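Summary for the steering committee. The consortium agreed at its last meeting that each partner would contribute one worked example illustrating the joint modelling workflow. Our contribution is presented below. We chose a case with several input lines so that the handling of multiple components could be demonstrated. No manual editing was applied between input and output; the record is shown as generated.
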Amino acid sequence: MLWNSVYNEFIKITAKPRSYLGLLAITVLVGVILFALKVDGQSMIAFVTSSFEQTLSFQGTLLNGNLVAFIVLQMLIIHIPLLVALVTGDLVSGEAASGTIRMLLTKPISRTQLLLSKFIAGAVYTLCLIIWLGILAVIVGKVLFGNGDLMVLNSDGLVILQEQDVNWRYAGGFAVAFLALLTVSTLSICLSCFSNNSIGPIVVTMAIIILFTIIGTLDVKLFDAIRPYLFTTHMASWRSFFEEPLPLKEIIKSLIILLAHQVILIGLALYHFNKKDITT
Amino acid sequence: MISRLITLILLGCLPVFAAAQDATAILEQMMAKWNRVKDYAVQVNIKSEIPLIKSFPVKATIYFKQKDQFKMLSKGIAILPKQNFNELPKFLRDKNSYTALITGTEVVQTQKTTVLTVLPTDDSGDLVLLKLWIDPKTDLLLKSQSTTRSNGTISAIYEYGSQTTFGLPDKMIFTVEVKKFKIPKGLATDINRTSSSDTGKPSPKNGKITITFADYQLNKGIKDEVFRN
Amino acid sequence: MSDKIIEVQQLAKRFGSFEAVKDVNFTVYKGDVFGFLGPNGAGKSTSIRCLLSLIKPDRGEIKIYGQTLAANRSQILARTGSIIEKPDFYKYLSAYQNLAIFSRISGATASAKEIYQMLDFVGLAGREKDKVAGFSHGMKQRLGIAQTLLHKPDLIILDEPTTGLDPQGIIDIRNLILRLRDEQGKTVVLSSHLLAEMELIANRMVIINKGKTVVEGEVSKLLSSDDLVVQLEIDKVESAKNYLKNHLPQLEIIDSTATHLELAITKSMLPELNKSLVQQGFSIYAIESKRKLEDYFIKMLKADVVE
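What follows is the complete predicted structure of the assembly.
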């Protein structure tokens, strides 16, 4: 019955206009970025390499599809969580608000199965968003700008990755980005279990992300102890795939922390959802 | 009295004139080799070891055609010194733009070389000083050092093998001065940073770029279209 | 005695400091149309939600089909259909899609043909592909009945199923319930404020008040006491009142209008009443037994308050 319920959730998600907002928003945003880079991408690169170009000269196609995809990811990955939460934050609380949760929970399906089906559907929706982002950023980017080596600016310097060495990094990067967004999805569904209105969990999810991001970026010793364990700290772990050498330990650590968050959030949601009295 | 004085002065300047004339001759002999090449295409491998930049060796093809047409085609991103290696021959061909003097001898790569100091005549130009270490026996340039206002000092070591006759190197090793590069913060914020960023390590001041040349195709005739963008 | 379908014993539930249900007990037998009555705030909805595992009771035991609800929830709910308050659907989906969704998690997925047949059965033929957002209240109620019956449950629990329906809709629901019992042998638990409707269809009932069971039993037996309330359509109402006060003081005059007189009377006294009024020259146009269950209900609640 779990998979029947998952199928039901897909039907509900695909029938809601809100679900397409995220895909549309990504399309428009990526389109704007690609257009801007096509028109004036060289000056952006000049800004990045200006410090180096006093002594050095960069030959080759710097502005190419790989760099464009990186820039798109860099700019949008902060905003995608809202698009995820917009749909997943509504999965439980929206049904409570409309009364359909009452109808569902008088059926033989267990509460655990019902909630897990929502987590699975939320995960698939998140995956669709990230795949769409990948198609637009990487594939459309390469069609418009061609292929080439990827020049990445990190806080410890410039990394130039060879063209043939980039695709697997994108695959890994997107996989980690998906896991990070999955944590957002899980958080919003968990919060959704505690609320009977649609908007609350979405707003609280974003508030948590913003708060944790601020804590993560403030250079304050007080926060050093907790910073490694905030999930927002690891939301940018996808960038680790574009360092050389690959910081495998850091990546694995990020994966563990993100997975741990999901386990805890799912556990908390299941516990509360199973205990909850349905009075709406 | 006056005539003796003039004679003394002229005799005193003789070594200088002689040195200048020798330096010019040495340069001309060196460039005579270069001038035997009407055009060439060569496969290069560029390896950059620059502080704060991590990169892999890049393969490219260089095209050259007299007098100063130069083109590099690389699939990847190559890092070269700001003053690329075509600048030197181009500068030296214009004899009116500099004064060259022999300023000593030095052993470079186990070879005794004549050290030439080349001073640009244009005080307002970017190039401030050029030093060349030339093997007088082979007329090959073994080392160069250029100092510019904008780029600091760039040194180059030249190694020869297959194209000694034409003065074309098999390897060039550039050493560039690296000022403390500044990373634009807005683009490089590491939000996955888990601790404070300052490592306290001093950053190196020089970087190295090694260019290896192979498979020269000399004087085969290269069309002008190749050099157009 | 028929099989016990539902057994509820010492059910209790507290929300914070408020005790919604204190001690509710009742039994529903196979084939019953069981009336679940009580004033607002009596604990009816809470009790019904406990039956359907929407609320976890603090104390007490619920057995359905002889099985403990807590341990056999899935099996029990697979054989149970329900509407709690108003049926809520996914407004952005069609009637068909809504039924399909609920069917998939009901233990036995209905085929497309069965869904179409059910929609036809509840009078929604031709509306299968219409979005529920455009449905009237009555249509949603019908759709609610459809989703209740689609998986062919043995037990149907309806909480206020006639709320918001027009008179024809109420009649339709009544007839449907009777058909379900008589033709399909289903057991129906029905909570409603329409006591007249209850009286017509329920064979057993429980009245609860302030979270406790007040009385439970067969409707016919509970209401079979000799006490009646009758309404007479009579000429000269005032004269009749005076006469009755003087000559039949044991009768209680409950109410009167210009043409009608309402009396509390024992069944055995009815012939004497009729005879004496006629002999006195009064014209009696109609004698009607009125608001039996309603009066019984109010009487029981008053008794519970006194106790």
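The first helix of chain C runs from residue 44 to 51. The radius of gyration of chain C is 23 Å.
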